[in-house]
Design brief:
Length: 329
């Protein structure tokens, strides 16, 4: 994808940026960021784009490469926002509010993945306030519905924990926001599809989830952001052979990446083993356990997957014993 050098406004680069991130084309995403930095050096969007690329890659590869720079970009974007917000015209103000909300949302999602639940909710609540102001000023800024929808989805998932908070958003509100983003947003459509697919899987609405995943994969073949929910859906609906095939496809992608740390590869072998157990295929159980246990892992990934590695060892021994007993009969 060529560098975007024709943009009249930073938002003009976002459709291409989000497409590159959905397809995991990181080199192209960095080209867009460099063009944005060259053409709009004073816009906080430059810092947000740098942060979202770092965030997407960290989530994609389950590592912390670039974590310090990610938080620094979010902090700098906030300072840039505070310097400009009181002196800009209304249309620029809406844009700054959107970027600020996006920074808080991305930071919140990352903190949530690290297990810092309350800090994550604090960031996401701030993000929701900014997105709401954007929509009050411009109800046609449909990409803001993506941010508010993912906030509402996150809160709805943890409603029990947050039961003491007033005005909890409903799952229906989250669904409505994400659907609006899919139908009308300028650049968030496929990100919203992926988020809503996970939402629908949790809701056991597998038919609608699979329809969204199919649309995502038709636009971005082999995209990990859609293969992951597909694997979850296939397992939950008992399509174990399809689940194994999709998992193998994803393993190949990680093994061919220089950034592979083994975390996701072992997780996928664990899923394949579980599917093989459901099929009663002890030979496959032994094979997938062996491959998972033999997979390359960094020390950090091995530590985080320690329980799963123990499970693979246990399942392998159990399946191997069953095979030996069967041979004796």
């Amino acid at each position: 994808m060529p560098v975007v050098g024709w943009a009249l406004h930073p938002i003009d680069t976002f459709p291409a940026l989000y497409d590159t991130l959905t397809g995991s084309y990181y080199e192209a995403a960095w080209e867009i960021q460099e063009a944005l930095e060259r053409d709009f050096p004073d816009d906080p969007a430059v810092l947000f784009v740098r942060a979202i690329i770092l965030y997407t890659a960290m989530v994609d590869f389950e590592d912390t490469t670039g974590e310090g720079e990610f938080f620094l970009c979010c902090d700098k974007a906030t300072l840039c926002y505070e310097k400009q917000i009181d002196t800009v015209r209304e249309d620029k103000r809406v844009w700054l509010e959107f970027i600020q909300g996006s920074c808080h949302a991305t930071r919140g999602f990352y903190l949530g993945r690290r297990g810092d639940f309350w800090s994550a909710m604090k960031q996401l609540t701030r993000a929701k306030a900014y997105f709401s102001r954007v929509l009050e000023a411009d109800p046609t800024f449909y990409d803001a519905y993506m941010g508010r929808g993912t906030y509402r989805f996150g809160i709805a998932q943890h409603a029990g924990v947050l039961s003491n908070l007033p005005f909890l958003p409903s799952r229906r509100a989250a669904y409505t926001d994400l659907t609006l983003a899919i139908d009308s947003s300028k650049f968030s459509r496929y990100a919203a599809m992926s988020a809503l697919a996970w939402f629908l899987i949790e809701e056991r609405n597998y038919t609608e989830a699979e329809s969204l995943i199919a649309k995502g994969l038709a636009r971005f073949p082999n995209a990990r952001s859609f293969l992951w929910p597909l694997i979850a859906l296939q397992f939950r609906t008992g399509r174990y052979r399809e689940c194994i095939a999709s998992s193998k496809e994803l393993i190949d992608q990680y093994l061919n990446s220089p950034r592979n740390n083994g975390y996701d590869v072992v997780g996928l072998y664990k899923r394949m083993t579980e599917a093989a157990m459901e099929l009663g295929d002890d030979e496959a159980v032994v094979r997938y356990c062996q491959e998972g246990l033999a997979a390359f892992m960094t020390d950090d990934a091995r530590q985080r997957r320690s329980r799963d590695l123990q499970r693979l060892e246990k399942w392998q021994k159990k399946a191997q014993k069953k095979l030996e007993q069967s041979e004796k009969k």
